[in-house]
Design a protein that fits this description.
By secondary structure, this protein is mainly β. Helix content is 10%, strand content 42%. The protein is built from one helix and 13 strands, in the order αβββββββββββββ.
Length: 158
């Protein structure tokens, strides 16, 4: 005998309700500003191919389908914070000046000039110091995600 999954209207309504509640408890940021014009380009070889794979010296990059890359600088004045959010794809951050704290889940880590980190999954970045922090941001993401660079997320329960 073969079993088939059965979905009821009640289950579908419950999923929709959870989505609405999650969106309602997003945590917007305060005080950050983009300080350079952003530049976006399509990653060479990613359009029209199933999978793009490049590697060299122990570093590997793989994408499925058209992939865009955007770069810009982001300024965090003292006390500024990003709010909890995520991004399509992967973000690589290099701290140009100042200090920031990145929180993922219930874990925090401090970064200063010359430090680099990634943003994958829900996270928050803050500048708890008394000096301005400037970050160089590189986003690598599916071309289809270009219209949604930031997704507000709920704060974790720690």
């Amino acid at each position: 005998m073969r079993l088939r999954p059965v979905f009821t209207a009640g289950a579908l309504v419950a999923v929709g309700t959870v989505t609405i509640v999650t969106a309602a408890v997003g945590t917007p940021g305060s005080g950050t500003t983009v300080t350079t014009d952003s530049v976006t380009g399509r990653l060479d070889g990613s359009a029209g191919r199933g999978v793009l794979k490049v590697q060299q010296d122990g570093v590997r990059l793989m994408s499925h389908g058209p992939t865009d890359v955007t770069t810009f600088d982001l300024t965090y004045p003292p006390g500024a914070f990003s709010g909890w959010h995520s991004h399509p794809g992967i973000v690589v951050v290099v701290v140009r000046s100042g200090e920031v704290v990145r929180q993922t889940g219930c874990t925090s880590q401090r970064f200063g000039p010359g430090d680099a980190f990634t943003e994958v999954g829900p996270h928050q970045v803050t500048n708890p110091s008394s000096t301005t922090a400037v970050l160089s941001i590189t986003r690598i993401y599916p071309a289809a995600g270009a219209s949604t660079p930031r997704i507000d997320e709920p704060a974790p329960r720690c």
